[in-house]
């Protein structure tokens, strides 16, 4: 598989009246064509801002300060707004947590599907209509032709999410970014939507970046996972590496906070105590120091480098240094 996207040392800040919030602090990642990558972390870890930087959809006070975002050979940080408009919706589709943020309440679902096809693909209205109907059928919306004439408020929550997925894929994008796509849905619909996305990935060979706070959501769909904390990637590896051989205490905490279906009645969930770091004044050393049970003196003063565990698996934690104390394996991982 060749590389579709590579982000190198991305730094994004927001300039507020209280100072500079360093939301993304040197993120590097890559995505292969046809691959699904999970980006996991708590709210405020920088995962959504990394993607908004990539789409060049930051709020006015947000700025990319450094780094490259190479998509199909072009550096997106260097493109004009007009060039970016061609990429958004056409080459890269987005699915958000709340469909109402991307569905326009005053246009029918049909209009919202037809318009990008006419704009980006130069289709006639008739061809765009037929393609839009096919898309609604593909995402499992019954009576698609009738539904084309309806407005978003006439759809249920799960159906709106499906309509938004149809909008994201209607131009056959090379990449779909799904930001907490199922958080607002109940578990049954959640499972159906995830299954649908997996199916579309396989059928259309679309690459997917799935952003979530929930490791359980990425387990089934993604082949690799990047764990973010404090505006940085703190661990990356294959899904197997992350679930069966995690090497960062933050990942251990995330794994322990995933409910285990085998013990759901007996087991209490273990949230990670404490608060994420203040990104107005990010820590000099490891951003997880204040919440980490294994913090050492070096963690406070020196940012851990990415230690290579194997050629796909890396973790930014001093415990992976050859001279660090060995940690009991029971402390690591949760439900793996
Ligand atoms: Fe904990 Fe230190 Fe590892 Fe950070 S570098 S996660 S503080 S042990």
TrEMBL record:
InterPro entries, sorted: AAA+_ATPase (IPR003593), ABC_Ni/Peptide_Import (IPR050388), ABC_transporter-like_ATP-bd (IPR003439), ABC_transporter-like_CS (IPR017871), Oligopep_ABC_C (IPR013563), P-loop_NTPase (IPR027417)
Family designation: Belongs to the ABC transporter superfamily.
Entry GO MF terms: ATP binding; ATP hydrolysis activity
Organism: Clostridium amylolyticum
Pfam families found in the cross-reference section: ABC_tran (PF00005), oligo_HPY (PF08352)
CDD domains, per database record: ABC_NikE_OppD_transporters (cd03257)
Localization of this protein: Cell membrane
Topology in the lipid bilayer: Peripheral membrane protein
Name recorded for this polypeptide: Oligopeptide transport system ATP-binding protein
The entry's keywords: ATP-binding, Cell membrane, Membrane, Nucleotide-binding, Transport
TM region(s), chain numbering: none
Cellular component terms per the entry's GO annotation: plasma membrane
Domain ABC transporter: 5-255
GO biological process: peptide transport
């Amino acid at each position: 598989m060749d590389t579709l996207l590579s982000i190198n040392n991305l730094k994004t800040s927001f300039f507020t009246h209280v100072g500079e919030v360093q939301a993304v602090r040197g993120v590097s990642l890559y995505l292969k064509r046809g691959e699904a990558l999970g980006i996991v972390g708590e709210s405020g870890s920088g995962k959504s801002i990394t993607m908004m930087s990539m789409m060049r959809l930051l709020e006015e006070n947000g700025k990319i300060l450094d780094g490259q975002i190479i998509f199909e050979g072009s550096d997106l940080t260097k493109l004009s707004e007009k060039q970016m408009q061609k990429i958004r919706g056409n080459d890269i589709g987005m699915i958000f947590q709340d469909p109402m943020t991307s569905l326009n309440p005053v246009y029918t679902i049909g209009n919202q599907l037809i318009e990008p096809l006419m704009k980006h693909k130069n289709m006639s209205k008739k061809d765009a209509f037929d393609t839009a109907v096919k898309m609604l059928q593909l995402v499992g919306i019954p009576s698609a032709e009738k539904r084309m004439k309806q407005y978003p408020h006439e759809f249920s929550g799960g159906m709106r999410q499906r309509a938004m997925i149809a909008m994201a894929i209607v131009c056959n994008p090379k990449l779909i970014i799904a930001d907490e796509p199922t958080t607002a849905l109940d578990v049954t619909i959640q499972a159906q939507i995830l299954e649908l996305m997996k199916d579309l990935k396989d059928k259309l060979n679309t690459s997917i970046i799935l952003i979530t706070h929930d490791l359980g959501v990425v387990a089934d769909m993604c082949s690799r996972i990047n764990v973010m904390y404090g505006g940085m990637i703190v661990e990356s590896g294959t899904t197997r590496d992350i679930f069966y051989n995690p090497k960062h205490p933050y990942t251990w905490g995330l794994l322990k906070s995933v409910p285990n279906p085998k013990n759901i009645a007996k087991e209490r969930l273990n949230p990670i105590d404490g608060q994420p770091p203040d990104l107005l004044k990010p820590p000099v050393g490891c951003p997880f120091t204040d919440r980490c049970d294994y913090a050492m003196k070096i963690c406070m003063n020196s940012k851990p480098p990415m230690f290579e565990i194997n050629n796909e698996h890396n973790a930014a934690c001093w415990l992976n240094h050859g001279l660090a104390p060995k940690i009991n394996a029971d402390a690591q991982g949760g439900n793996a």
